[in-house]
Design a protein that fits this description.
Elements lengths: L39 H13 L3 H16 L2 H5 L2 E3 L11 H10 L2 E7 L7 E5 L6 E3 L5 E3 L14 E5 L2 E3 L4 E2 L5 H6 L8 E5 L5 E2 L13 E3 L4 E2 L2
Parallel strand pairs: 1-2, 1-6, 6-9, 7-10, 9-11
Antiparallel strand pairs: 2-3, 4-5, 7-8, 11-12
Length: about 230
């Protein structure tokens, strides 16, 4: 199956400007699939249970392999601004990528869940690990006291966590809709979106809802898949 070439996806460096990015829950659906028969909740629970049973050594090895595939991309090597996540519960560990970006002086964007708004999050710059603090779900995120929301979220790359992905690029998350609202934002149109997951989390097809948005690439410990 053909997809976007990793080195030829359009879009330049974005800027980190103060002011909130509005990830509005009213942003509507763009895709629909006939695959509505699979029980999404059961699949989510099954994948999360399997991931939670991975040993730290297995997670570390798989994370290094998945992250190395990201490093092989031209867009990563030339990126000036990247959106990443802080790993939890056996997710592919992005901390080596975070450290690399900080070392080379790139702008690092990270999500911050709004404590008073379910399913919504702000995006903020983090200049170093000390800028991070435990957030709403005890996930490390930019400290609201020192890291204001950006006015525009249009990074060169966005690394997106997931409970699962399918071969069409669709994502299964925790069910809160946080990343669904981010991926549909028009400012992300030129961003190369990359799902990170363990190989067993990449399945043939997922049940897809109206609001689900596919990613451009999926990087696992076994392959770099282009939907």
């Amino acid at each position: 199956m053909a997809g976007k070439p990793s080195g030829d996806v359009a879009g330049g460096a974005a800027r980190c400007s103060p002011g909130p990015v509005e990830l509005d829950s009213r942003q509507g659906p763009c895709y629909r699939s006939p695959m509505q028969t699979t029980d999404k909740r059961k699949l989510r629970d099954s994948l999360m249970e399997r991931r939670s049973n991975l040993s730290p050594a297995t997670v570390h090895k798989a994370s290094m392999q998945a992250c190395q595939r990201v490093r092989s991309l031209d867009r990563w090597q030339n990126a000036c601004e990247v959106l990443l996540y802080w790993p939890i519960r056996g997710e592919v560990d992005t901390r080596s990528l975070l450290a690399e970006l900080w070392q080379r002086g790139a702008t690092v964007l990270m999500p911050r869940c709004r404590p008073d708004a379910a399913g919504e999050m702000d995006i903020a710059c983090a200049a170093c690990e000390s800028d991070l603090t435990p957030g709403k779900f005890s996930i490390m995120e930019p400290d609201a006291r020192t890291c204001p929301p950006v006015a525009r979220c249009a990074p060169d790359l966005a690394l997106i966590p997931g409970v699962g992905y399918d071969r069409l690029g669709y994502r299964l998350g925790f069910g809160g809709g946080y990343y669904d609202r981010l991926l549909v934002d028009e400012e992300m149109a030129d961003t190369l979106t990359i799902g990170l997951c363990h190989a067993f989390q990449l399945v043939d097809r997922l049940p897809v809802e109206e609001w689900d948005q596919p990613v451009d690439l999926i990087s696992t410990d076994e392959e770099l898949w282009r939907p």
